[in-house]
Amino acid sequence: MMHSEMSRRRLLGLGIGLGTAATLTLAGCGGGSSSDRGATAGNGGKDYTGPKVDLKLWNGFTGGDGDIFKKLVEQFNSEHQNIAVGVTTYRWEDYYVKLPGAVSSGNGPDIAVMHMDQLATFAARGVIAELDDVAKALAFSEGDFAPTVWKGGLYKNKRYGIPLDMHPLGFYYNRSVMQKAGLDPNKPPTTRDEYTAALTELKKSGVQGFWVSPFQFTGGMTFYSLLHQWGGTLFDAEVTKATFNSDPAVEACTWLVDMIKRGHSPANVGQDADYLAFKSGKNAFHWNGIWQINDLKKNTDVQWGVSPLPQIGSQRAAWANSHNFTIVKQRGADNNKISGAKVFINWLSQHSADWAAGGQVPARKTVRDSAEFTALAEVNALAPELEYAAFPPAAPGLGEVMTTFYSSFNEAALGKKPPKQALDDGVAKANKQLEDNRKKYGS
To answer: Could you give the CA distance from residue 149 to residue 137 in angstroms, rounded to a whole number?
Structure first.
């Protein structure tokens, strides 16, 4: 899972490269021949009775979650004699670069797993197909999921993704370090006052309790969460202007920078040093993704717990992303393959309690309410965050703009600029990038 987390970091650090690749290669996608081959033998994902189809599925699950995913695919294949799904796995940062060219040349997959923040880009360039008929045929609605994750699959009011899961930021606490400082190891702080009081006691015992990373993983994601907790947003409603230099954003950024100034965190924390310090008992509190749960469970000498993020601002919020299933457009559409793909997407959605063991909160409400998911105590502890998850907006080409956002926080956390100046400079750059995206993607 540590390897998987590294891959996520490398992917999200490639915003400019991914945007460029999409611009250069996606323009030709979806504009070729669209002749149908064969009459469809499906009904929007409920079942498939046609001839056997071989489907290609691409994903980026390179960590322990990949083994779980492959086992689920094997189970599906054993239960469906007329559908055979073959899995190809790439590192996420390679995956999104390879996909446009493969689709353009006619060698793309039939099904692609995609992060929510990538859907708009690939939808805008005609690489993935609309899935409103799947949602309608399966009687899916917002009530079957959580509003935040369901709406995240939309682009221009059309559905392009069927959500599989949600992976949020969680609050990890080291019980041993808390106990040594006289804190109750079974009562992690949940409010700003409790958090401040706990850090004060930790500092008295000689512990810098909350290490603030200047990098996207994990400081930038922490700032993303706090900005929303203070009531701010990264962009305006139309995603035409960056707003992460608003008063709430500056206040949230200043609160984090003050953690360093007040001695609750070292300065210039190295990449992953905050997580390694947590595991070695050098700090008490750590904000990181749900995907770290399985890694921590392997470290039996670390006494730890996990809970939703403390509410530091005026409302609850947590950084989150989501894996969605998409159906890739082909030069010549085979309706039988499309029907088979819909059956697979529906089946895996129904079996996402097994997928949750890889460190994901199932998007489907019936699965979250199941005894199987409840038994996954640590993952289930972060399920409440689904209701107030702060997902990225549905806008094409947003990767490079998000890189600018995280770079702005980096400058503030490293003391290169005061928080207000760092965010003002970042917004100025981000607005130019957003303007370029409107020209690039025609929206």
So the answer is: 19
User: Quick check: 185 and 302 in contact, CB under 8 A?
Assistant: no
DSSP 329-364: --SS--HHHHHHHHHHHHHHHHTHHHHHTTT-EESS
- Strand-pair partners of 191: 311
On whether both 185 and 147 belong to a single domain, the answer is: no
Residue with tokens 């129904």: 350
Q: What is the pLDDT averaged over residues 63-72?
A: 91
- For residue 355, give both structure tokens: 């997928």
Angstrom CA distances, 183 to 134, 179, 189, 204, stand at 51, 5, 10, 12
What are the percentages of helix, strand and coil residues in the chain, rounded to 5?
Answer: 50, 15, 35
Closest CA to 246 of 234, 255, 254, 238: 234
Amino acid 338 reads I
Angstrom distance (rounded) from CA 282 to CA 69: 35
Q: Tell me the C-alpha distance between 176 and 27, whole Å.
A: 55
> Hey, what are 433's tokens?
């990038």
State CA 244 to chain mean position distance.
20
Q: Give the range of the structural domain holding residue 335, as residue numbers without chain letter.
A: 2-164+322-390
Task: Give the span between the Cα atoms of 232 and 243, in whole angstroms.
Answer: 8
- Tell whether 301 and 373 lie within a shared domain: no
Question: Using alpha carbons only, how large is the chain's radius of gyration in Å?
Answer: 22
Which of the listed residues 351, 369, 390 is the one where a domain comes to its end? Answer: 390
Contact between 286 and 274 under an 8 Å Cβ cutoff? The reply is yes
The tens digit of pLDDT for each residue in 303-328 reads 999 999 999 999 999 999 999 999 99
User: In this structure, which amino acid lies at residue 132?
Assistant: D
| pLDDT score recorded for residue 12 | 43
Is the predicted pLDDT of residue 22 greater than 90, yes or no?
Answer: no
pLDDT tens for residues 238-266? Answer: 999 999 999 999 999 999 999 999 999 99
Residues 270-299, mean pLDDT to the nearest whole number? 96
Q: What is the CATH number of the domain that holds 409?
A: 3.40.190.10
Supply the pTM of this predicted model. 0.90
Mean pLDDT (the chain, rounded): 90
- Largest Cα span, the chain: 73
Distances in Å between the alpha carbon of 351 and those of 66, 322, 357, 380? Answer: 15, 16, 11, 16
Distance of CA 315 to the CA centre of its chain: 21
